[in-house]
Amino acid sequence: MSLTDILSPSDIAAALRDCQAPDSFSPKKFFQISGMSKKSSSQLKEIFRILDNDQSGFIEEDELRYFLQRFECGARVLTTSETKTFLAAADHDGDGKIGAEEFQEMVQS
Known about the structure:
This protein has 109 residues and is mainly α. The protein is built from six helices and two strands; from the N terminus they run H-H-H-E-H-H-E-H. The N and C termini lie far apart (25 Å).
């Protein structure tokens, strides 16, 4: 399964266009434009599984830097500042990584 099986390619493209400039990425806005915020819990779990590149059950800081590239190969990497802000917003238990439940809470909030 790929992200385009769950999300519309045109919505993904629009979300990526919105954050092309360095330090312009907003997770909330990205989730809204891409359509992720309207997806069911089971669909979000599948999206999380796809984004969890090493299948560890968590999205770590290294994986988060390449978040946009999971949606489109040519997309930019997140800046250090964007990565740390994204991680801090989602990592509720302070373990330095984002679990599936934390990801789902962030997308749906």
